[in-house]
Specification:
Layout (H helix, E strand, L loop, with lengths): L1 H5 L3 H17 L2 H9 L8 H5 L5 H17 L13 E4 L2 E6 L20 E3 L20 E3 L20 E3 L7 E2 L8 E3 L7 E2 L1
């Protein structure tokens, strides 16, 4: 199908894109990574990728989010598709990657992504994390490295499934964590005075 698509066969292109979208929507990590690595997602437009999000609230939030990112991060070069920003599992957003977007605050639309498992906000000039972070109950990987965070809200302790937390290279002086499933934790290069 790929070769026929490249040769201009319209029917093959339609079926090929449907198959790529179907695999992307299944949310199997190995399949999603393969599609991205091998460039298959580049055959889909941003709108086609957005159609993988079946939850109406998340779909609208993601559309607003894309527009906001492009306005807020004028220095960032965006590719033609969003495949590198998010992944979908069973029609819901499960991964959101926003490292180096010059975000000064955490976009409020993220709070609508209730099935989010991975959130990468590393390498931004964030100075705070909103208390609603605790509402993202399915989160198991949170990356907040290389920001300007001076504190982390207590609500982070509501993330009972959090396994991986990256807080290195911030301005944290005090940290109080009670995360029962935490397996990996990075905290290097913070001027910590108190850790509990």
């Amino acid at each position: 199908l790929k070769r026929l698509t490249e040769l201009g066969d319209a029917q093959a292109k339609k079926v090929f894109k449907e198959e790529i979208l179907l695999r992307f929507m299944e949310g199997i990590d190995t399949a999603s990574r393969y599609l991205q690595k091998e460039g298959y997602l580049e055959y889909l437009s941003s709108e086609e990728l957005l159609s993988a999000v079946r939850d109406e609230v998340e779909y609208e939030a993601l559309k607003k989010f894309e527009k906001m990112l492009k306005q807020q991060s004028k220095d960032v070069i965006f590719p033609d598709t969003l495949d590198w920003i998010f992944r979908v599992r069973k029609g819901r957003i499960s991964l959101l990657r926003l490292p180096g977007y010059s975000l000064k605050s955490v976009p409020a639309v993220i709070r609508h992504f209730k099935e989010l498992r991975t959130l990468d906000l590393g390498a931004n000039p964030l100075s705070s994390i909103p208390v609603w972070i605790g509402e993202l109950k399915k989160l198991d990987f949170l990356r907040l490295y290389k920001n300007k965070l001076k504190s982390i809200p207590q609500e982070i302790n509501e993330l009972k499934d959090l396994r991986i937390l990256e807080l290195n290279d911030n301005l944290l002086q005090k940290l109080d964590l009670e995360l029962p499933k935490l397996e990996r934790f990075w905290l290097q290069r913070n001027p910590l005075k108190q850790l509990s």
